[in-house]
Write a structure and sequence with these properties.
This protein has 54 residues and is an alpha+beta fold. 37% of the residues lie in helices and 11% in strands. Strands 1-2 form a two-stranded antiparallel sheet. It is globular.
Length: 54
């Protein structure tokens, strides 16, 4: 298990054109949604990677 080095805010996600198609932004009332591999890779890059919890 790991956590993001830096949080990626909803405002940042909304302002990122490459993430405009995310279910999180397109569908209302989602508390859990699928994230495509390319979206996850971009989010990880935006967050500065992962930090180990150990």
């Amino acid at each position: 298990m790991a956590r993001l080095a830096h949080p990626v805010t909803l405002a940042t996600i909304k302002a990122t054109p490459d993430l405009a198609g995310m279910d999180l932004l397109r569908l209302s009332r989602l508390s859990v949604s699928a994230v495509r591999p390319e979206e996850w890779a971009l989010l990880l890059d935006m967050a500065g990677g992962l930090l180990s919890l150990s």
